[in-house]
UniProtKB/TrEMBL annotation:
Listed name of the protein: Uncharacterized protein
Record field: compositional bias (Basic and acidic residues): 61-80
Annotated stretches, region: Disordered: 60-81
Species of origin: Candidatus Vogelbacteria bacterium RIFOXYD1_FULL_44_32
Keywords noted in UniProt: Membrane, Transmembrane, Transmembrane helix
TM stretches of this protein: 12-29
């Protein structure tokens, strides 16, 4: 039996309220063997193929006016391998030495706006994955794919923001975490083509989501140390689905 926790709201710092949505997923691991017996699981290479950011924009159709809700055909060729996250370094960010109170406030508001898509409570993605594996319903695969599109848009926007130099390392960590959750969702959405890979990435997603929560909390602490005070209208609350057992 799966056990759900209530929303555990953690308001950290000044601009982003973090709500940790807990779901006991000990049963995810237990389901692997059961699903393996009921599904034709092909062996999957543990090697990952790292793709640049442009690949993910093409995969998810990153256009503001695009309302595509259906995932494309499987992207894997010449055997099934999980796709890896694009590499992002400080050199990829727009870093400024301008660190006035005003510039940091602007950065904080832009950060809140960028992360706002995570402000809507949504089904736990790992739970969707299990439903997909059991029902083989393409609609569920599309829901996971859509979650990946949301993460891609956040990823691209985070990379184009102007970031204060003293926040750059913390900002980079958020970008890297979003990249990893985005890729995990892409691999999870292909559960009908490769259940083994999808289950593996479902477990990885839970770990990466918790790291995302922690990295955003660290950025909140940054604003506190800088003495930045935001108005209620500036603040948002975001939801991060994680496994409370991790």
């Amino acid at each position: 039996m799966k056990k759900k926790l209530g929303h555990k709201k953690i308001i950290v710092g000044a601009v982003i309220g973090l709500t940790l949505v807990g779901l006991f997923l000990w049963w995810l691991g237990n389901k692997v063997e059961e699903i393996a017996r009921a599904t034709d699981l092909n062996a999957t290479s543990t090697e990952t193929i790292t793709k640049p950011a442009s690949f993910w924009s093409n995969l998810f159709g990153d256009k503001d006016n695009e309302e595509t809700t259906t995932r494309p055909a499987s992207t894997k060729k010449d055997g099934v391998r999980p796709l890896g996250a694009p590499t992002v370094t400080l050199a990829d960010l727009k870093i400024t030495k301008n660190e006035t109170t005003s510039s940091i406030e602007i950065y904080g508001r832009q950060l809140a706006t960028t992360l706002k898509p995570l402000g809507t409570p949504r089904p736990n993605e790992a739970e969707l994955l299990l439903s997909l594996l059991e029902t083989k319903d393409e609609t569920t695969a599309n829901k996971i794919y859509q979650a990946g599109k949301v993460h891609l848009k956040i990823f691209n926007n985070l990379k184009t923001m102007t970031v204060p130099e003293t926040a750059s390392a913390l900002h980079l960590k958020v970008v890297q975490n979003i990249a990893k959750t985005m890729v995990a969702l892409a691999n999870m959405s292909e559960a009908l083509e490769d259940p083994t890979m999808a289950i593996s990435d479902g477990l990885k997603y839970q770990v990466e989501a918790l790291e995302l929560f922690d990295s955003i909390a660290a950025l909140n602490d940054y604003f506190v140390t800088k003495g930045i005070v935001f108005t209620p209208d500036d603040k948002i609350v975001i939801y991060v689905n994680v496994d409370d057992q991790i």
